[in-house]
Amino acid sequence: MRKRKAYKAILCIAILLFALWLVKTFLVQPFVLLDENMEPTLKKEGVYFIDRISYRFRDPRRGEIVVFRTTEVPPLYFVKRIVGSAGERIKMEEGAVFINGKLFNEPYTKVNSDWNFEEVSIKEGRVYVIDDNRALWPGPYSHTKVAYKNIVGRIMGIK
Asked: Could you tell me which of 141, 106, 148 has the C-alpha nearest to residue 127?
């Protein structure tokens, strides 16, 4: 009788662990933001949840905040906001983003007029991402093109 109860307990724990693995791998994953690059929208050391399933059914959209991994080994993970999609041209002048030559209104940003970059074109299967907190000096991944396949998912519940 004791062996049967132990077997049931082990089976329940195994099923629970498998279910948790499925949820984390395919549905929702916790993520801790380690820097202030997305302030004021996301807070440093805040815990956020990544929706890992939406992009299996649709493409990423402008305004969504995503977690992506670099192609380095081991990969680095970053959180950024999508500002550009395939077929668009993006540039920044004095901290302001221009999409196809038109100013893009971003009320959620902290702006630094020193941020500038030349116009880039976004190819199919990619998005352009950028930090919300542009009061910081731009780092190597502060703004970049990201392939869909490198996007882990979008931060849930944030606009």
From this structure: 148
